[in-house]
Amino acid sequence: VRLAEEARRVRDEVLWVMPERFPHKRYEGVALPQRLRLVLEATQDAVGVSEGQLFFEIAEEVEKALPNVEVSLLLGEDGAQRLVEWDYGLSATEREAYLKGNLERYRVLSAARTGQWQPPEWAAPHIGWLGTPAEAWGVSSTRVRESLERGEDWERLVPETIRERVRELYGSRGKVSGQ
User: Fold this and answer.
1) Which end of the chain is more exposed for a tag (fewer CB within 10 A), N or C?
2) For the segment 106-159, what is each residue's pLDDT rounded down to a tens digit?
């Protein structure tokens, strides 16, 4: 949510798009519909679901649905790193060409979590770093889930508007009636 707030300083709107399936993991515990509901309750932004799994596939799908809109990818530092370092099943030369072409088409907006990852020189001009404050760097859905599981303070990591819903979904490990 904080990343989206920062993105609104440089973009008119934020559209949250979640893939039906991830290419590297599954939706564990809490299913996609419940996650979409959390976003709707936490923000005033629009949400969508993509058939595409990879970031550029999602961007292309959004571009087709909204043809007169400039599409950028809003990713945390880990997402930006995964975007640049993902294998894509291509040779090194093909991979770099694929990435360069797509990065010219879709600008990446990101915020450092650790500030430790540095993109390759050829990719750096296509990544805009947002001014997310240091206290937000350690916030992630993984950290919230782990804090809940360990009985640690997690409420400060989650917008007040969705705390009860997060407690309901993740406190019960997502096993709620009708899921």
Assistant:
1) C
2) 999 998 776 678 999 999 999 999 886 666 666 777 788 888 888 888 888 889
Distance in angstroms (rounded) separating the CA atoms of residues 62 and 99: 18
Residues in the chain: 179
Going by DSSP bridges, is the β-strand pair 73-76/127-129 parallel, antiparallel, or unpaired? unpaired
Question: What CA–CA distance (Å, rounded) separates 36 from 18?
Answer: 8
* CA distance linking residue 61 with residue 83, whole number of Å: 17
Q: Which residues contact 141 (CB under 8 A, 6 or more apart)?
A: none
Alpha-carbon gap, residue 3 to 165, rounded angstroms: 21
Cα–Cα distances in angstroms (integers) from residue 169 to residues 23, 50, 57, in the given order: 24, 23, 29
What number of CA atoms fall less than 13 Å from residue 66's CA on the CB side?
13
- Nearest Cα neighbor of 122 from 164, 84, 151 is 84
The span from the CA of 166 to the CA of 38, in Å, is: 8
Q: How far apart are CA 37 and CA 77, in angstroms?
A: 24
> Is residue 144 within a helix (H) or strand (E), and if so which, with residue range?
helix 141-150
